[in-house]
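Model: Ready when you are.
Researcher: Fold this.
Model:
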Amino acid sequence: MPAPERYAAWPNLAAMFFDQTWRMGERPFLWAKREGLFRPLTGRHAAMMAAALGRGLRRLGVEKGDRVMLVSENRPEWLIADVAIMAAGGITVPAYTTNTTADHRHILNDATPKVVIVSTPALAERLLPAVTHGTVILMEGSAASPVPLIPWAEMVAGDDQTGMPETLAAVTGDDTACIIYTSGTGGAPKGVMLSHHAILFNCQGAFDILNTLGLENEVFLSFLPLSHSYEHTAGQFFPLSIGAEIYYAEGIERLASNLLEARPTLMTAVPRLYELLRTRMLQAVAREGGLRARAFHHALALGQKRYEAEASLSLAQRLTDRLLDRLVRRQVAARFGGRLKAMISGGAPLNPDVGLFFTALGVRVLQGYGQTETAPIVSCNRPGTMRLDTVGPPLEGVSVRLADDGEILVRGPLLMQGYWNQPDTTSTVIDADGWLHTGDVGAFDSMGRLRITDRKKDIIVNSGGDNISPQRMEGFLTLEPEIGQAMVHGDRRPHLVAVIVPNQDFLKAWIGTHGGSPAQMVDEPAFRKAIGLAVDRVNRSVSPLEKVRRFILVPEPFSVANGMLTPTLKVRRHVVRQVHGARLESLYEGSL
């Protein structure tokens, strides 16, 4: 465990890596599945590989400031490559594994990397057609390449030097560590330049928040893509900074079993994951029924009541609640591995009802807020003073204020250095006084905790001039068991309409009972009526302006594969509107 002052002593991220890994020595550090079992890589072994690769990159001509593109799923080699690039004086340019060839071509043309590192032939298949120069390093397997290709094993083996690459001494905290491309919710991705110091500052901020949990011998399960700034900082460099072990999840379909195998103490996640987990847990409880289901819902009700400061439990309720800790909450904790201290939610606003669900069941959820442009953490709830409808107070040393229109402005050491090759765009986001204009709208509560209300550019202004938050309404809709996903529409229109994706389990169950296919269900009157009843339930709880008057059903979920979700599962509204816009507009035909 580092002393807090050590964060300031580390001159760069690679220096932190070598310091920490040599402290670990032969202790397990990075865990990945091989032959069906999680197997560890020690700190010493990871350091030797990173040092060898860093020197190998120098031999390939990588000099200070050169870019190296990294395309890989989460695995030990991701961190080793990232650090080796920085140790060589280079700048890491991560790319999502879900990128198309066109996406890769955009980054290659924009960042002009000298070397590209890719993990598998399957990922290389979409990447290599876009590569026109430089050298490719392939972690495993083989592939036909238009440029020189070198196996990873050759780059990390045969080097008997065990110390840090000599080039590391020239890397300062003000140098660019990485260029992380935004996930493109509003258009073409932009390359965000983040310094070593900005990420180290974020790591120290995370330490200050979580240290009250007694950080010691921590275990992380890395699930979100490391090409996203949230996981890059919170799921990679922060665990490294406290000497934690990192397990690499196999993907969302294996997450439940990976939780039981890794038994993490800390984990990062995005709101969509919590929503999916909540839905699956409620469905499982409904299938089980009987006494266990009643106990589960009783634990949920008492936990929710306990959370509300104004609602104290009676003596009988407190005794019942303690019994339910053993009967229900201990079983819930076991599903997460049994030793989880906290799950940190970020990437998008978490519906307070979803957060309350897990809190009531004994799973601590700390919601934070940030952006790629802030490396990324701006604020986060503290374990002892959290409120689920806020994202907590700003990190120590970070200034946050609200513009006249409610936009959140941020200033401090965590800010990006700018957008790569886009000085004009940078100047429109960071003003002359050094304030980053986030594009998010928020407010502070009486305790100085920040509350995010919407994205400034996503706010719907109806034809009457009223401002409406689409995310709020979408959050309510997707809490209904019949609804899987939703996007609300209505800018400059008289009322709201929506695209609704049925909950896939509900859809399958309906088809199993009534017959038909998913494509047929979207126009089947009885099925539409069932979804309509769910929409009506939500409409009864909101203001008249927020009511969804009409909707279209679509059988195919929003996904990363069809471009309607970002890799961190946020809706790409412009893509959904491109695909379904005509049908949405047709809902207004005949409207008053």
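Researcher: Now this one.
Model:
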Amino acid sequence: MGIYLNPDNMGFRQAINSEIYVDKTGLIELTNNVLYTEQKYVCVNRPRRFGKSMAANMLSAYYGRGEDSQEMFSGLKIAETESFEKHLNKYNVIRLNMAEFSRCANMTEKIDQIERILLREIKREYKDIDFLDITQLVLTLKDIYVETKTPFVFIIDEWDCIFREQQNDTEAQRLYLDFLRNLLKDQTYVALAYMTGILPIKKYGVHSALNMFTEISMTNPREYSEFTGFTEEEVKALCNNYNMPYYEMKRWYDGYDLKGVAVYNPRSVVMSLTGRDFDNYWTATETFEALKIYIELNIEGLRDDIVKLLSGEEIRIDTTTFTNDMVSFHSKDDVLTLLVHLGYLTYNFYEKTVRIPNYEISQQFASTIKIMDWGEVAKSLKVSDELLKATLACKSDKVAALIQQSHMEDTSILKYNDENSLACVISLAYYSAREKYEMWCELPTGEGFADLVFMPRKNIDLPALVVELKKDKSADTAIEQIKRRQYTDKIKDYTGDVLLVGISYDSKEKTHSCVIEKIVK
């Protein structure tokens, strides 16, 4: 047993001993299926605090010869499969966390330290083998495999930390990729190479030094979707066990769409359950700067798309041009793709669109914009609380004044080019309402669409809001249209009061007006 060669099972033992443990050992069945195949190279990329290290510890405990894991896995899902006994503790595992070597002065020193550490443990474990050259890691691993016929499973956690810490050092990145390629590619001693990180594998030109890997990412999770985070069924069961409201858990932490599988942020769910509250747990582990750096680039009008996303819209993007690093941006799509990999957006694989996944992330976007120089957008968010209060109090003149205050004609996306633009602006202005309301944009009705509908969340005693928006038509016309098209029939099962809100914009006078009518049910 060593630290890096066949380590003990303590990492995974701590996970299953925790107050909350969700059984993800089904992942082992997937990796068992690719052992000794052309698909034995797997690179799993997901955001920070999404359980990457836990999965790496689990695989190390299962495959490694350092400690007997029979009892540890006996009550878990993998024990029910045919392949369980066949591969349990049958391999030499080399487990590396690349973040541990961050203090090295340069890449040459980093690679040298990794090799020296591994060779030291190998010499202790295999004293009787006549090595050709004990100073050469690849040759030494070949010698071990020839003598023992025991292949290696490589588990490399945080494999991409070099690309995050030394973003502009392309020479260091090339040296690192070449090291991994020489260690892993086409080597018969490799039974499985499993890497975890945030970023997909770096591309250089049309080729990649590690092109043998199957990439599992937030843009295409392949068959690994359910192992990326907590699934809906798992979260429902946890909420039931902790007597916590599932609908609130879903609002705060759901929203990651992985090829049709709804995935929740695992850290946030665990912290919410153990703390018995709902708060910004995932986003609280990073500063505003992390998001601010990328959205303030404003490549190709990126700012406009961010505003649309914050208002609840989806944006179509092309992920194919992303070069898998944090500095090479050729279009706004590249920035949005990076935000998907970082966990700030979710990507619909089939529709090729992105959106903000949940309330927790939406708050991070809003908070970031408020500290940036985004003029009227930030102002719109800041008056949001006051606007909701004025609406609920049926103060139509104040509502019109506040919307006027949050809008300026020369503010890019906030130009009222059409009613869709107006809907975007009003949605931002009512941002605070999302804490207590569910919001729908363009809710389908019998004869058309209501621009915005706000339904109070469970256990919230507030009226529903049906908002109709008009440009160069009166606010009274908006109210009449709501009644004529019977928009309120769509909320007929709601037993509380309903506020009909008509908002209009006069493009000649550049003024807003508002009419609010209350329907008591």
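Researcher: Key takeaway?
Model: The two ends are 71 Å apart (CA to CA).
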